Q: What sequence folds into this?
């Protein structure tokens, strides 16, 4: 009996050792919308920063195949500027960028300063060489950096009063089309940012698909309520068509602005 018990125990141990690890299971087994930052830490993303010289508004918009991308990527402060920080993300780049603009740094100087200060605390998993970020000040001046190790395809294009950037994209046409859409679209800044996201997606977008989108537009005194500098802050955190849903919200905000204008 003791010999039989030892054999049975050995068979159990062998069967456990041979079981495949959970991480080896196919992504196809995940429910729709289940993948997020924890499952895929390299945030494949495309974003646009933009400025309207007619109103003084500055804004940023983003789309990604990651849950609630707006929480970490887009930053802004009226009278200061906006920041988009993505790819192998260090979220602190957002507040750092705004603070440097407050201290009088140009966007290009702020980009260099942030990279210089980055201690690269986890070079194996979160290398500094993979960072991608764009900084635009309240005058529409912009500087963008794409690290050499940002996940392919990664790159950016700076246009007139805008910069489009992204990683894990279908190719350079994504950012090219985003800039062209921003420059050729009329109306409120939010509509121009929205058109850029739609053009980026039409050109192939994030090769992993879509999940969330967000937009932020700021201007001193530009909000609806007293002491409010936020013209627009919208987030679509988990949706099969996040850009289309963002379009619905952008147009709802546009209708509200029109009603206020007529009063």
A:
């Amino acid at each position: 009996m003791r010999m039989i018990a030892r054999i049975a125990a050995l068979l159990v141990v062998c069967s456990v050792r041979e079981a495949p690890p959970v991480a080896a299971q196919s992504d196809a087994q995940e429910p729709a919308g289940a993948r997020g930052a924890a499952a895929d830490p390299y945030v494949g993303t495309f974003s646009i920063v933009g400025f309207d010289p007619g109103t003084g508004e500055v804004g940023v918009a983003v789309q990604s195949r990651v849950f609630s991308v707006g929480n970490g990527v887009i930053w802004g402060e009226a009278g200061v500027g906006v920041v988009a920080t993505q790819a192998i993300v260090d979220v602190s780049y957002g507040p750092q960028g705004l603070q440097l603009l407050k201290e009088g740094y140009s966007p290009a100087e702020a980009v260099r300063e942030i990279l210089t200060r980055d201690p690269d605390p986890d070079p194996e998993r979160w290398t500094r060489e993979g960072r991608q970020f764009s900084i635009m000040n309240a005058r529409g001046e912009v500087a963008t950096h794409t690290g050499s190790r940002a996940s392919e395809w990664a790159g950016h294009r700076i246009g007139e009063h805008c910069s489009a950037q992204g990683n894990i994209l279908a190719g350079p046409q994504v950012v090219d089309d985003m800039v062209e859409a921003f420059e050729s679209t009329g109306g409120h800044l939010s509509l121009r940012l929205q058109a850029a996201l739609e053009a980026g997606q039409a050109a192939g977008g994030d090769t992993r698909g879509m999940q969330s989108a967000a937009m932020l537009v700021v201007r001193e005194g530009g909000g609806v309520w007293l002491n409010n500098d936020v013209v627009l802050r919208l987030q679509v955190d988990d949706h099969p068509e996040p850009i289309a849903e963002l379009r619905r919200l952008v147009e709802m905000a546009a209708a509200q602005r029109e009603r206020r204008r007529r009063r």
Notes: Strands lie at 45-52, 57-64, 74-77, 81-87, 131-137, 142-146, 155-159, 162-166, 212-218, 230-236.
